[in-house]
Amino acid sequence: MNTAPSQDTPPSAEHWRSYGPLELHPILKHAMEAFNEAGYHGTSVRDIAGRVGVTVPALYYHYENKQALLATLLETSIKDVLDRCRAAAGEAGDDPLARFRGMVESIVLYMAHRQQLAFLDTEIRSLEPQNRARYVALRDYLEHMLLDTVEAGRAQGVFTTPIPADAVRSVLVMCQGVANWFREDGPLTAEEVAERHVLLSLGTVGHPGAVTGDFPFPFPRPAPPRAPAAGSGRQRPGRSSPARPAPETS
């Protein structure tokens, strides 16, 4: 199985903020649900086969064993995070502040919209050494993307943290925690949670505006591209929609 980050053109900006239904092979889908409900060690191959409605030998035809199911799910998840994060960074260009904001937003949106997959990161302890090494390498790649951006921001005076590596690890732990507590029927939307975590993350890496409260919140987003007008060869300029106000908190 190829576990290297994709080197193809990153997904478009529209893609990294967009989430449709989760598309997984039925065996993977039911394995994910079983692992989340009972834990990896509390789930048997027979349990998964029963959920899918196939025999155990039929399941083994598609996946070698239970470990292969967990490794495939975790690698599918981290690769999607990486692709979306790379797309967000690509949209932002060379500005370290915009890149950091976009990457944090993309990570938090993933944790909220792909909660069941993201929550499986707690089962990293159940991976066998070779599978764990591959997964950790991918997760480290994500960490280094953020760290490189923070270091670039420090060089420009945008970020002031004296311990960038520790700050980045703290940001990732905080963002990943969203998968543990976010609820679709809760008081905040995924987008609002992402905005708040961007602000918290900017404070963690020492952005002066986030620390003093002078940073605009909610954050303005680029206007989405609009289709050309009928009969016109030019694309009409887009207009930014007003930012959604942050909900009041008690």
Overview of the structural elements:
- The protein has helices at 13-16, 26-38, 45-52, 56-62, 66-92, 96-113, 115-119, 129-155, 164-176, 178-181, 190-204, 208-212.
- 58% of the residues lie in helices and 0% in strands.
- α2 packs across α3 and α2 crosses α5 (66-92).
- The protein is an all-alpha fold and 250 residues long.
- The model is unreliable at 1-13 and 224-250 (pLDDT under 50).
- The chain contains twelve helices and no strands.
Q: Structural class of the secondary elements? A: mainly alpha
Helical residue percent band: 55-70%
* Averaged pLDDT: 84
Largest sheet: none
Quote the distance from N terminus to C terminus. 49 Å
Question: What is the H-and-E element order?
Answer: HHHHHHHHHHHH
Number of strands: 0
Strand residues, percent: under 5%
Helix count? 12
Present the secondary structure layout.
Blueprint: H1 13-16, H2 26-38, H3 45-52, H4 56-62, H5 66-92, H6 96-113, H7 115-119, H8 129-155, H9 164-176, H10 178-181, H11 190-204, H12 208-212
Question: In a few lines, what is going on in this structure?
Answer:
It is built from twelve helices and no strands. By secondary structure, the protein is an all-alpha fold. The N terminus and C terminus are likely disordered.
Main attributes of the structure:
250 residues, mainly alpha, elongated, disordered N terminus, disordered C terminus
